[in-house]
Amino acid sequence: MAQTAIDHKVQWETVSRVVYPVKDADLTLPLYAVNWNPSHFDASVFDERDSMTSVELNAISRSDFSNLVARGNRPLPDDPHGFTVDTRSSITLEPDTHISLCTYFNAFPAGYWRRWTCVKQLRFLAEATGKGTLTLFRSTARGLSSPVQTFTIGSIDSKTAERIEATLTLKGMLDGGYYWFDARAAKDAALTVSNAQWQVPTTDRRTKHTGRVSIAITTFNRPSYCLDQLRTIANEPELREQLDTVYCTDQGTNLVRDQAGYSEVSNQLGSQLTYLRQANLGGSGGFSRGMFETVKAGKSDYTLLLDDDAISEPESILRAVHFADYTVRSALVGGGMFHIDHRTVLHVQGERFDASSMWMYPSRGAEFNHDFRSEPLADSPSLHSMQFSDFNGWWFCLIPTETIRTIGLGLPVFIKFDDIEYGLRAKEHGVPTISLPGVAVWHMGWHDKDPARGWEEYFTQRNRWICALLHFPNAAKHSAFRMLYEEAHLGMRLLYSGMKLNHMALSDVLLGPSHLIDSLPTKLNEVRKAREGFDDSTTYADPLELPEPADHFQRNWAPRPISTVTKMGMQAVLKALRSRGTGKSDKSPQVSIPARFSIWPAFLGVNSAIVTTPDGDSVSWFRRDSKLYRRNMLQCFRLTCKLMKNWKRLSREYREYGIASMETWEHIFRDA
């Protein structure tokens, strides 16, 4: 039985409130409440052996297959209807309306509490007026659900608020599972449910008191976004009760403090806002400054790293802090990332790191880009199971101050891989990363970004291999393959500026940790200058400035097994190395290629092309240069061999230098 006897002697603390959107509800409501529908399951939830048998689908792409599996023959869920959000904590159902709170933000992740804390029982509280029923449900790690207890409202007086209380057990939930409630209004009356919340016994808390948090936000010329983030925090009284200060590190020239409305927000936050100015040291420099100041102040139990341009669900911050208070040992508590341009699509919730490729991938069972509007939580059995993470993106990551004191701050790498490396470093010190469901922000996705086509490529590759040296001292051989693979891939896309930056990155890795630190304030300008003069880095705001291309690209590749695609890629690289093709003397481009299709197959047989930039605001005229491609590949091969030869020495130097220590960062902040 999931229900247990109520012990009125236990002291309880609210760790998660049921909340509703009062802003942008039309975009986000399926993440909070949905109309009830019967759940659908595939056979594998009953017998895992069904997932071991493959199906040959030779003529269908992965994306089409994913959509087919997700939708099946069932209709898409209806848009939420028949109920109204009254306040952040209250919802009213029209007569004969049936809704479910088995949603991303309002289902309680009981499995995570069972796995990572000492909590064994849970209390649910709510108030209800009107007539109807409220039913508590529980799911297993397989995604199978069952009712726990049903409450009838309005049996005596439908105008009087009735208190609903139930104590529940977390027994049997080590592998996952949720609790939530469904509500149904009577056929002849409305039903209002208010102040629903989940509580746990305070005796199970690891810390002596409810944790205090400081928030680190860094910004560079995004003043309006950052101001909105500060305003969101200022308007959340429950969060303010646990907030020490917000460290707003402004590294730009268009300053947050100069924006209309800043003085009002500043006055509202008062001493809970610490505004800092420093030179542009990138995201790692801005976040590390907030971590640094938190440690120096010595008041906060946690530092929350929060992106300036993210839209926050403030309840996420409170949930993360409460969860961190109860974990058996210190842990990094991360949040998921929803797409800001499609609010119900979860880009990722927790990520793993693959040492063979030195790259990230989503936690098992939690694929990228899950749309809760079309695939509700009740119909997504894999999301009910426990997911384990190696790191969490720094769009939202709560870090215990004691962990910062022990393992240091972020790497001084400007941008890219600082969050990945920190998660790996924490893990090596026995501090896990827990990406907690129900905790998330909305953020700009990566689909309109392409680091390989900008200055970010340098930092991606340099920091990737520094991360590898720090944590994988025996990874020289398979790292060498990836270095050459990345170089070949850039050349296949005619990104010769990217190849230049790749060489620059590998050369700088060889210079060791002292160069990394000394060059932090100036490296961005060096990288920008290194990209100048290449065809692929020269942009034109008006495509009509260039000759009309002979043709316009249309996707012409057929879906193939991944092994076939890999073989094709290797054959294409070998062909490119032998090629004598050039587009340097072309009077007009052969084809125009949209940004979304600018992957290597689009450039097969193409010597020159007009390619749209990832932001969709300009174009570049790419030209093939086969001689340059061969020279670049040879240069990359030489650098790779040198790195392989010196891998163990460099690994030792980077690990022993203390590049992320408080002392190193104090030196950087003082001299920047």
Describe the structure.
This protein has 672 residues and is α+β, with helices and mostly antiparallel strands. The protein is 32% helix and 24% strand. The protein has 18 helices and 29 strands. The strands form 5 sheets. Strands 13, 14, 15, 16, 17, 18, 19, 22, 23 and 24 form a 10-stranded mixed sheet that branches. Strands 1, 2, 4, 5, 7, 10 and 12 form a 7-stranded antiparallel sheet that branches. Helix 7 crosses helix 18.
- Helix proportion range: 25-40%
What does the main sheet amount to?
Answer: 10 strands, mixed
Low-confidence stretches: 43-53
Taken as a percent bin, the fraction of beta residues is: 15-25%
Helix count, DSSP H or I runs of 4 or more residues: 18
Going by helix content, strand content and strand pairing, the class is alpha+beta
What is the number of E strands?
Answer: 29
Q: How far is the N terminus from the C terminus?
A: 61 Å
Shape: globular
Radius of gyration: 27 Å
Average pLDDT: 91
Write out key terms for the chains shown.
672 residues, seven-stranded antiparallel sheet, 18 helices
Strands, helices and their partners?
Blueprint: E1 3-4, E2 12-17, H1 25-28, E3 34-35, H2 62-71, E4 83-87, E5 90-93, E6 98-100, H3 110-116, E7 121-130, E8 132-139, E9 145-153, E10 162-169, E11 179-185, E12 191-201, E13 213-219, H4 223-234, H5 237-240, E14 243-250, H6 262-269, E15 273-277, H7 282-297, E16 302-306, E17 311-312, H8 314-326, E18 332-339, E19 342-348, E20 351-354, E21 359-362, E22 370-371, E23 396-400, H9 401-407, H10 418-428, E24 433-443, H11 456-471, H12 476-492, H13 496-510, H14 513-518, H15 523-531, E25 539-540, E26 551-552, H16 562-578, E27 591-593, E28 608-612, E29 619-623, H17 626-657, H18 662-671
Parallel strand pairs: 13-14, 13-16, 14-15, 18-24, 26-27, 27-28
Antiparallel strand pairs: 1-10, 2-12, 3-6, 4-5, 5-12, 6-11, 7-10, 7-12, 8-9, 8-11, 16-23, 17-24, 18-19, 18-23, 19-22, 20-21, 25-29, 28-29
Helix pairs in contact: 4-6, 7-18, 10-11, 11-13, 11-17, 12-17, 13-17
